[in-house]
Amino acid sequence: MSELIEQLRAALPADAVRTDPDVLRSYAADTAGFCPAGRPAALVLPRTVEQVQHVLRTAHARQVPVVPQGARTGLSGAANAVEGCLLLSLVRMDRILEIDPVDRIAVVEPGVVNARLSRAVAEHGLSYPPDPSSWETCTIGGNIGTGSGGLCCVKYGVTAEYVLGLDVVLADGRLLSTGRRTAKGVAGYDLTRLIVGSEGSLGIVVRAVLGLRAQPPRQLALAAEFPSAAAACDAVCRIMAAGHTPALLELMDRTTLRAVNEMTKMGLPETTEALLLAAFDTPDPVPELRAVEDLCTAAGASGVVPAADPAESELLLQARRAALTALEAVKGTSMIDDVCVPRSRLADMLEGTAEIAERYGLTIGVCAHAGDGNTHPTVCFDAADEDEARRARESFDAIMELGLRLGGTITGEHGVGLLKKEWLARELGEVSLELHRAVKAAFDPTGILNPGKLF
Amino acid sequence: MSELIEQLRAALPADAVRTDPDVLRSYAADTAGFCPAGRPAALVLPRTVEQVQHVLRTAHARQVPVVPQGARTGLSGAANAVEGCLLLSLVRMDRILEIDPVDRIAVVEPGVVNARLSRAVAEHGLSYPPDPSSWETCTIGGNIGTGSGGLCCVKYGVTAEYVLGLDVVLADGRLLSTGRRTAKGVAGYDLTRLIVGSEGSLGIVVRAVLGLRAQPPRQLALAAEFPSAAAACDAVCRIMAAGHTPALLELMDRTTLRAVNEMTKMGLPETTEALLLAAFDTPDPVPELRAVEDLCTAAGASGVVPAADPAESELLLQARRAALTALEAVKGTSMIDDVCVPRSRLADMLEGTAEIAERYGLTIGVCAHAGDGNTHPTVCFDAADEDEARRARESFDAIMELGLRLGGTITGEHGVGLLKKEWLARELGEVSLELHRAVKAAFDPTGILNPGKLF
């Protein structure tokens, strides 16, 4: 062990190799519940590509597992330590190397925080759309590792669609460049996309070329109240079938609304069974908002509140932003799921989740990126109550099973990590799983990169 | 040999296994120049997934190479026969299985022609954007194999962005399902994107779930004439830097314009050194077209012609659509390249291509998806003139070298096939190439799928 540390320190500054037990403990896990974390041998905090290569070469020579980490805001345990591993934190590699408004790209290191990049490109009239809830703290490297989404996806897609090229340190320390700086390119296999969402199991991202968009106008929103979740889901289907492409289309169920009211005293209508938020960021969003209002009314909305201006839109969105914290407050602990179904099955997903909540005697609030069919059923429980915690875990699994039954996926944007690895096997099936293992072996034959995650 | 045919016929109708030499010859190659084609052992034309599985099982057992084909409109030799292979044509698997306006997806077989799908989804108010020039004849399976683009890409991206999930018959006949039917999903490695653009070297696509968009309004275009290619490229940079996102942004150089004039008698201004076409498909494109007109003028445009309506826009685009045929007519044969550079280097790419034309004593016309930096330098030559043909091939290579030097890629949308395999190795470098080989081995350990293509 001390030999390992010595070897690491040969090419890394002293403060970049940490072994203090308190520090190791505090870095050992991400934000997921129900995921075990092992005891790391050390934490390394490199600042350069060469330092990352040294770490990997050292780990590879000694066959020590390496677990890469960003801000550890992940929700699946993908960044949790495995026993005796090196925790490889990329947070100190946080430079924005380039922003180019003509080529509409940014070149960044993995430790750049999402919000910092978003603000930096905004100064050039550009936008980096992916906006996970944790955007103020999560890193681009973490977003790439998990394939993050956010509210923007219904119009602007997920992280993967903005990653044009990567520099990746391989398991043995070699440097791989994938992809391109150009708008298009089909030279060879799409290794870039293979790395995105691979949760550090194929290589360590040390640099990314990201595609940017022109900054859209500020969005204008409306809120629509519905007497049932089914009616809100019907509105979602009508909106999408009519050819609208909102910049966001979010749903909150009654449980979520009550939790938000309780916490924020916003005074949302307590009788509402579901609230839909729709926003458009086109040059003139008013006609589309009016059409959406009519579609909501046709689907049975009991009331529609259009925002007068972007500031009022922001107020409407605050309830949505408060949802997870509010649900967490209900029973002290919450566990957020991430099941995505075809949007035509959204109503079935919500109905089924309500049944699961009843069956397990639990409070489960649902907020959803409804335009994508991506639901976040959030199980509220008292972690100190062993029986309730067990039921929480079981209900979580029942929700994934429901999602698969409805033609969906166990994860729309949070990833698999430790939390869902058994479920990934069920979703993929044996042929796909076998190919996953073969691809993993092609990149990391001795299996030192984030072992035991994903599959 | 006859044993192979017998075995194939055991599970395929008689007319689905062809061995007539004339038929084999006519299927032996795609549309690329300078690419050798071997003599196939047979042509198979399955209609079902099970038949494709039977073909692969048979080929795998006997270690016979398999070359998948769509409409053979490809431009890189990826669909060319290798000696003794089975040509596996997917054109009879041409059913559109599903179009769903709520989930905005289509489920199709690989032999569906691009234009047929585009028209079918338009009836539901939807759009399938990828629009390669060959869209009236090329198949979705071929588009997926090569990762096709088109005029739409500057706003709507390439084929890869519309492929959500695939059914793929593997080298040994097993069936792999990748991806999803949902708008989002990050369950496991992105095998879907790995298959897209892999030119049949990893598996045979037998079904695809495609993402669709709402149909945009009909586009309105303008044409701008420039006294130099550099000025036109400057306009492209100004347009993109100002935050515009045209639905297309196309450039034609003087050589192309003269060829089009010669063929079509359109009466384009012969003094123009470069013509830029820009179009917008927003609800109100007029303000953006005016802004683009001003930017073109500022970049030195000698004249700008805005279309009065979509019909006039269509007339403006006819010159662009005629470009390749017109260049082909110059000397009887043409060879189209596909180098994509960062759009900030577009002027350097055009200038360098003009120098190459002069150095090799050849006519090279350039049309470009300028908004993407994707140039199609087209070498015009007399194939009967051995020396000219040799110079044509050499100039083609010089163009790729130039593209790489400018930070570009050897292929923006046409693929690698046989034509560019040496160049792919140069673009990727040894580490990436080694991983490509390992990924190939993970999918096709015995190497029967489209051997000798790509790398």
TrEMBL record, chains A, B:
PROSITE patterns: FAD_PCMH (PS51387)
GO MF annotation list: FAD binding; oxidoreductase activity
UniProt cross-references to SUPFAM superfamilies, sorted A to Z: FAD-binding/transporter-associated domain-like, FAD-linked oxidases, C-terminal domain
InterPro entries, sorted: FAD-bd_oxidored_4_C, FAD-bd_PCMH, FAD-bd_PCMH-like_sf, FAD-bd_PCMH_sub2, FAD-linked_Oxase-like_C, FAD-linked_OxidoTrans_Type4, Oxid_FAD_bind_N, Vanillyl_alc_oxidase_C-sub2
Domain FAD-binding PCMH-type as annotated: residue spans: 36-215
Cofactor: FAD
Record key words, sorted: FAD, Flavoprotein, Oxidoreductase
Keyword Flavoprotein annotated: yes
Similarity field: Belongs to the FAD-binding oxidoreductase/transferase type 4 family.
Full protein name: Glycolate oxidase
